[in-house]
Structure formats: structure tokens, C-alpha cells
Amino acid sequence: MRSKHLVTASLLSAGLILGSVSVANATDSTPTPVTTASPVATTYAQQLAAYKVAFASYRVAMDKYNAAWKVTMDQYNAANKVPLAAYKVAMDQYNAAWKATMNQYNATWKATKAQYEVARKAAFTAYQATQRVRVAQRAAINSTFQAAVAKADSDFANALAAATTADQRSAAVTARNAAITAATTARKTSLDALGQLARLVLPVKPVKPVAPVKPVAPVKPVAPVKPEHNA
Known about the structure:
0% strand, disordered N terminus
């Protein structure tokens, strides 16, 4: 009986040991995970590397572009050194000639206006003098007429005072009327001789002449156009 129990215990112990080994073996068979790089980090590194390559190519292309443009400008400046100098001389001459033309134009117009103003003032002064003379002449004619009328009235009064008959009084009236008529006729004749006062005649105001037309300026040599750089 005792031996039966020992066999059973041995079998149980063996089973437990085998189970532990199986479990251990099963645990050891699980595959180990493999560490991989981040997709984002890999993409950025690739982009950075590509950018550096592209930037280096761009620098090379820009150096070639600038060198080619410098050659073009050097050739232009060398070829146009004399034409550009001649252009500067021509422009200086052109500006000087145009300035002289405008100065002459303005000076002539200024002198014309000054002459007109002198003539206008002279005409107005002469008209005023003529008017003063005419006023004085009319005043003298009227004064002579008034004196003649006053004398006719005085003679008439004296004649009436001395008259004793109707014929004498009638003769005095006739004499007075005749004297006044004669004075009136003399006054009209004198005024007619003066004539009408001439109207003030001013000189014709000058018209500003048409300004000279500016000539065509010299043509400057055309510089080359810098091409666009397509990187």
C-alpha cells in the first residue's frame, strides 16, 4: 500500500515538472519584436538631404547666371562707352539750346508787354490832356456867350430907361434879341469848330506768341534687359 502511494506521488511530481517545462518552452517560443525607425523622421531626413542637394545646385546655377550677366554688361559698357559719352555731350548741348530758346522767347514776350504798357499809358495821358484842353475851350466859348448875353441885357435895360417912345422901346427889344441871336450863333459856330471829342483809342493789346516746340531729344543707347532667372 505504501509503495502504491509513492508511485502516485512520483507520477504527480513528474507531471508537474513536465508541465513547468512545457510552459517554459511555450514562453520561450514568443518572437522578439524588432525596433524600426519612425516614418516621419525618415521622411524629414530625406527631404533635408534633397533640399541640400537642390540648394547646392541652385547656388551653382546662380553663380553661372550672375557671371553671364556680368559678361553681358561688361560687353555693353565696353561697346557703348563712346556712344554714351557722345549721348551725354548731345544732351548737354540739347538742354543748353532749349534753355536759350526759352529764355529768348520769354525775354521777347516781356519786352513786348513792356512796350505795350508804355504805349497804353502814353495814349491815356494824351487823351486826358486833349480832354482838359477841350473842357477849357468850351468854358471859354460859354464865358464869351454869357458875357455877350449880359451885355445885351445891360444895353436893353439902358435903352429902356432912356426910351421915351414906343418906337424907342421896340428898337431896344429888337436890338437885344439881335445881340442874343448873334451870341448864340457865335457860340454854336465855335462849338462846331471844336468838333466831337475823339474817343480814347488804346493800342492793340499784344497776343502772346505760340511757345516754341521742344525738339526731339537725343536717343540714349538701349541697355540690355536682365533676363529672368529660373532656378
